[in-house]
């Protein structure tokens, strides 16, 4: 589909499922090389990263565990600049390597909150894997270890990303069409 409507907004095709799959494969290859012998815990940030995490972990070939946290910082198309933890972490992280799996990093506020919490819980090495990165919107200064695709600062839906909870189920990613 070239265009989709999600609730009251129109979106046009931005990234195809094939382009996304290629980026997921590249991230998995980097992780496979870096994580040999480390038994990492992959921490998927819900809700948005669930599709990326699923596809990524099918391609990760190292011994690992996966867990989930649910965080929220968006209402509609805007960040609130406040992170709410809706489902917390229940693993022991002392001396563990953790790879945080995120769908998108834009301002970096949610990830900054997550990194601080993981360090307080004793993780010895924390890496970040994101499918999408918006450098124009990024307000923090931590490194992002594994980036699938660098994109402009536009609002997008599909492949797990949503607009008010809708649009996550598209296999492609769409960008908003401004009025």
Structure, briefly:
The protein is of the alpha/beta class and 179 residues long. The chain has three helices and ten strands, in the order ββαβαβββαββββ. The protein has a single domain (17-150), classed as 3-Layer(aba) Sandwich (Rossmann fold).
What order do the helices and strands come in, and which of them pair?
Layout: E1 3-6, E2 9-15, H1 17-34, E3 41-46, H2 50-59, E4 65-75, E5 78-87, E6 97-105, H3 109-120, E7 125-133, E8 146-150, E9 156-157, E10 173-176
Parallel strand pairs: 3-4, 3-6, 6-7, 7-8
Antiparallel strand pairs: 1-2, 2-10, 4-5, 9-10
Total tally of structural domains: 1
Spans of 5+ residues with little confidence (pLDDT < 50)? none
Q: Kindly identify the CATH topology.
A: Rossmann fold
- Strand percentage: 35-45%
Q: Describe the largest sheet.
A: 6 strands, mixed
CATH secondary-structure class: Alpha Beta
The succession of helices and strands, N to C, reads: EEHEHEEEHEEEE
Indicate the overall shape.
globular
Output the radius of gyration: 16 Å
Instruction: Count the E strands.
Output: 10
- Biggest sheet: strand arrangement: 5-4-3-6-7-8
* Average pLDDT level: 91
Count up the helices: 3
Our measurement of the CA-to-CA distance between the termini, rounded to an integer number of angstroms, reads: 20 Å
The helix fraction, in percent, is 10-25%
Corresponding CATH architecture: 3-Layer(aba) Sandwich
Q: How does the helix and strand content classify structurally?
A: alpha/beta
